[in-house]
């Protein structure tokens, strides 16, 4: 299966996105987590999603190969980036699939740009996380801004990270896209800790319960209940189910793994199966494909 890299201008920044072509298949836009990058879904795509969907996965602003402005990390700015991407691709109404922060961005788009969203797939994203979420995410945030002597050292550290309860070969492409390596081998994450912190703080001021209540498209929330850190799940079942009740028409299913590992191995296969079933229920809501082949 091929993969194509593209760079476009949208909302005054350069946005990088990956295209996984599948001619004749329905389009799916996938949005990654807060410190992640466009390769976050490599495990799900390898698990078979790329056989059934023509997938687009952008690096959100401040991550990966996309521009990293000093300011402008509100949910509105993120949303306008994605609307610009949809315009570029000629996608009238998208099926959105978002993990964690990307799920919240998908929810925001669904509520505030309803004419551009046909259906919504939330991967471990809800209006409220575990009360200990800030401490639970410290191991993930702690890799940002650190200088590692080589990529091999960085990768060994990631293999030992507490949230990575097992290792899947698809994780390596994700972590390779997570960093830049200078001529001496010094390795550092592409994401800037200050920018990511600004995003995290901004999330806490958003009226997420109200936003979820304004989602009227069909939705499904796929919830990973495995231990993430601190012997707890990042999104407990009670909060996930509460989120599904806020949305007018939202299904719920449990996926193997934790908030991170759900995207790989058995969890990835279960996500693929759930998306296939869900899409059959909503495909009548997706306009006839008018996508213009991207050449950016």
Identify the overall geometry: globular
The profile of the biggest β sheet is: 8 strands, mixed
- Total E-strand runs: 10
**Known CATH architecture:** 3-Layer(aba) Sandwich
- Give the strand content: 15-25%
Mean pLDDT over all positions:
96
Structural class: alpha/beta
Tell me the name of the CATH homologous superfamily: Alpha/Beta hydrolase fold, catalytic domain
Proportion of helical residues: 25-40%
Into how many domains do the coordinates divide?
1
Protein name: Alpha/beta fold hydrolase
InterPro entries: AB_hydrolase_1, AB_hydrolase_fold, AB_hydrolase_sf
Keywords: Hydrolase
Pfam families: Abhydrolase_1
Question: Secondary-structure map with pairings?
Answer:
Elements: E1 4-10, E2 13-20, E3 27-31, H1 42-52, E4 54-58, H2 75-89, E5 94-99, H3 101-112, E6 117-123, H4 133-136, H5 138-141, H6 151-160, H7 170-176, E7 179-181, E8 187-189, H8 193-204, H9 208-213, E9 219-224, H10 237-246, E10 250-255, H11 265-282
Parallel strand pairs: 3-4, 3-5, 5-6, 6-9, 9-10
Antiparallel strand pairs: 1-2, 2-4, 7-8
What can you tell me about this protein's structure?
Keywords: Hydrolase. InterPro entries: AB_hydrolase_1, AB_hydrolase_fold, AB_hydrolase_sf. This protein has 296 residues and is α/β, with parallel strands linked by helices. The chain has one domain: Rossmann fold (3-Layer(aba) Sandwich), CATH 3.40.50. Helices cover 37% and strands 19% of the residues. A hairpin with a 2-residue loop joins strand 1 and strand 2. Helix 2 crosses helix 3.
């Amino acid at each position: 299966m091929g993969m194509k890299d593209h760079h476009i201008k949208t909302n005054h920044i350069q946005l990088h996105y990956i295209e996984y072509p599948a001619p004749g298949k329905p389009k799916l836009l996938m949005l990654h987590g807060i410190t992640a990058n466009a390769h976050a879904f490599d495990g799900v795509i390898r698990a078979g999603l790329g056989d059934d969907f023509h997938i687009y996965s952008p690096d959100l602003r401040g991550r990966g190969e996309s521009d990293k402005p000093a300011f402008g990390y509100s949910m509105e700015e993120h949303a306008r980036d994605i609307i610009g991407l949809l315009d570029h691709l000629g996608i009238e109404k998208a099926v959105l699939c978002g993990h964690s922060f990307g799920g919240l961005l998908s929810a925001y788009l669904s509520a505030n740009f309803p004419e551009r969203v046909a259906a919504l797939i939330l991967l471990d994203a809800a209006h409220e996380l575990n009360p200990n979420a800030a401490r639970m995410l410290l191991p993930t945030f702690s890799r940002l801004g650190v200088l590692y002597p080589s990529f091999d050292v960085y990768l060994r550290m990631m293999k030992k990270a507490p949230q990575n309860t097992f290792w899947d070969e698809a994780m390596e492409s994700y972590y390779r896209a997570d960093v830049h390596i200078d001529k001496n081998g010094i390795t550092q994450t592409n994401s800037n800790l200050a920018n990511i912190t600004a995003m995290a703080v901004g999330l806490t001021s958003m009226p997420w319960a109200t936003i979820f209540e304004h989602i009227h498209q069909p939705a499904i929330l796929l919830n990973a209940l495995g231990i993430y850190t601190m012997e707890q799940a990042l999104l407990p079942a009670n909060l996930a189910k509460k989120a599904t009740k806020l949305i007018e028409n939202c299904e719920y299913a449990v996926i193997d793994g934790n908030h991170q590992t759900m995207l790989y191995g058995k969890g990835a296969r279960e996500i693929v199966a759930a998306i296939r079933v869900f899409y059959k229920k909503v495909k009548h809501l997706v306009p006839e494909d008018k996508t213009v082949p991207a050449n950016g």
